[in-house]
Amino acid sequence: MSISIAIVEDEKNYNNALKKVINYQTDMKVIAQFFDGNEALNNLPKISPDVVMMDIQLQDMLGIEIIEKVRKDMPDTQFIMCTSFEDDEKIFNSLKAGAMGYLIKGESMDKILTSIRDVYNGGAPMSFSIARRVLNHFEKKTTEVKGYDELTNREKEILELLSRGLLYKEIADQKCISMDTVKKHVGNIYRKLHVSNKVEAINKFNHFKN
């Protein structure tokens, strides 16, 4: 049984090139082509293909919006973003919307065909540069959260006072401790948060608060 595929791509030459290469395979077939978002939005749920190759920046809407709107009506369909955009916001918004793959348009057709098979079989194919960004994002978040969790309650209190703009002497007076003790706590805060100055420490504190 062949993998049924729909292509949502407003660049006609690329859309047709994808269709031609996919239909040349014995295990997959393009059952629909859409050249604008509204057409895709209205018709995708009716055909529920196994895989949708989705462009992000269509002329009339974002491909991310389409996935958000049709996802619940197409529980068995897997979406692969196929786009020229590599910025973090679009990557993570696509994944949050329900895309299981993210490919850059410069990828070879072999990579695209392999990705279709992968996502159909439960994988999450991504271009190398995208996978690296995703891993770096989560690695960074893990380090940040871990660092904040390592702070003692007193260190968290001092970090909060620093974020309010208080000077070391004012913190010492408010907490009834010496300036040297404040400096020692601040040094521990920098070490645990992996920062080298007050601005970086406060930025991380604001990130944790939000």
TrEMBL record:
InterPro entries given in the database record: CheY-like_superfamily, NreC/VraR/RcsB-like_REC, Sig_transdc_resp-reg_C-effctor, Sig_transdc_resp-reg_receiver, Tscrpt_reg_LuxR_C, WalR-like
KW Phosphoprotein (keyword) present: yes
Domain HTH luxR-type: 144-209
Presence of keyword DNA-binding: yes
Domain of life: Bacteria
Response regulatory domain span: 4-120
Leader peptide range in chain numbering: none
Keyword entries, A-Z: DNA-binding, Phosphoprotein
Coiled coil, from the record: none
SUPFAM superfamilies in alphabetical order: C-terminal effector domain of the bipartite response regulators, CheY-like
Pfam families, alphabetized: GerE (PF00196), Response_reg (PF00072)
SMART domains in the record: HTH_LUXR, REC
Record CDD domains: LuxR_C_like, REC_NarL-like
Residues found modified as 4-aspartylphosphate: D55
Record protein name field: Response regulator transcription factor
Organism: Chryseobacterium paridis
